[in-house]
Amino acid sequence: MPEEWEEGVEFIERVVEITRVDKVHKGGRTLSWRALVVVGDGQGRVGAAIGKAGEIPEAIRKGTEKAQSEMITVPLVGTTIPHEVNCRYQCARVILRPASEGTGVIAGGAVRAVMEAAGVKDVLTKVLGSKNPVNVVWATLRGLQQLRSVEQVAALRGKRPEDIPFRPWGRRTENGGTAKD
Predict the structure, then answer these.
(1) DSSP code of 91?
(2) What is the β-pairing status of strands 105-106 and 123-129?
(3) Which residues contact 11 (CB under 8 A, 6 or more apart)?
(4) What is residue 28's DSSP assignment?
(5) Helices first, then strands: H and E counts in the chain
């Protein structure tokens, strides 16, 4: 776990799914548990991992430690994400759209856990295809990794951030303004 995230940071921890796993041996079955855990600081950093152990609390602890060590940084614009993103992981497809302030997190279980842990307060989401929580969480994290801030886009284009027409939500109209649907 990186030192800069350990000191004085209070993490938001969400257990998305706990699954019982049986391994069949010649002499019988061995029971263990798998926990999908999402961890974030509520300020733009989030991570997720799966912990496996013979007991539920131990599986959650392992998942939490691994998720904290694999956190990503999410660029935020106020309380929302900078732009729309579509992402897939296996058969799960997740659409993340920025929303105006006060909208809230419009999302289902697995996506909601990731968004709230990341500190995103206003976002519209849709899950298409597989609803498997593990695949949905990985697809959501992939989508958050694809987000770019205005500064990053400007640097890629060799321009100043002021030269990039940025509209965090809504679409362009003919006169250059934004229309909210």
Answers:
(1) T
(2) parallel
(3) 39, 40, 41, 64, 68
(4) E
(5) 5, 10
pTM of the model: 0.84
Amino acid (1-letter code) at residue 5 = W
Residues contacting 105, CB < 8 A, separation 6+: 112, 115, 116, 120, 121, 122, 123, 125
Angle of helix 133-146 relative to helix 109-118, nearest 10 degrees, comes to 40
Tens-digit pLDDT profile for residues 1-33: 444 445 667 899 999 999 999 999 999 999 999
Yes or no: say if 140 and 127 are a contact pair by the CB < 8 Å rule. Answer: no
Q: Which residues of the chain have pLDDT under 70?
A: 1-8, 166-181
Instruction: Return the bridge partners of 28, or none.
Output: 25
Distance in angstroms (rounded) separating the CA atoms of residues 101 and 79: 7
How far is CA 33 from each of CA 21, 131, 160, rounded to the nearest angstrom?
A: 6, 21, 51
Give the whole-angstrom CA distance, residue 16 versus residue 111.
10
